[in-house]
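Example 3.2
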Amino acid sequence: MKNFLVISLALIAVGSIASATPACSTTIYTETALNTSGFTCEDGDKIFSSFSISGADPNLVVQFTALPSPYTTPISLEVSDSTGAALAANFTLSYTIGVDASLIVGGYNYISVVSTGGTDSLTSVATNTVSTNNAGCSSISSVDNGSGHGFSSSNCSTSGQPTSLLVTDSYAWTSGTTATQIQDTFVQAYVSTTTPEPGSMMLLGGGLLAAGLIGRKKLVRK
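Structure, written as tokens:
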């Protein structure tokens, strides 16, 4: 019986490892890799999935910032050209970002702020519009200021403490040398779940102790 239990636990452990979501880390993902059905990666407690990229630039790549602990650190997704060239073609990128609740202890995280920005090169003319399925962040735009000044940074606060967002980036290039990178950033907020007050815990502990003593006396009398 003991051997059976050990084998069962081993199989469960192996299954958990095999089904774990791979870390996004600092890996550079190509358009082909992201468009692969079922592609998913995780940074900290945030899971990125359901990617779809369409556009005229075959060299588009996506990279994530590593997310250290604690999990309230902002996380960013960056889009650029693998050759280092400017993003001189329109494209659309959509994906889902969600919270892995199994990693949070004593509370929960939600996505509180979404922001968009980027980096340009010389005389840029471009706009990146980020839309989500959240009422508080339905649409925000970041406009390239040109002449090497970079994109304006725009942000919005979500509503309803969402633990999952469907995000769509619509990049529009109009003329001139344009952006070398666009960036979506997600700020997280942590909410602690309610815990019993010390007084309540003492009362509960005292009650359990009294019940145990009463039960012990009854056994002794018998």
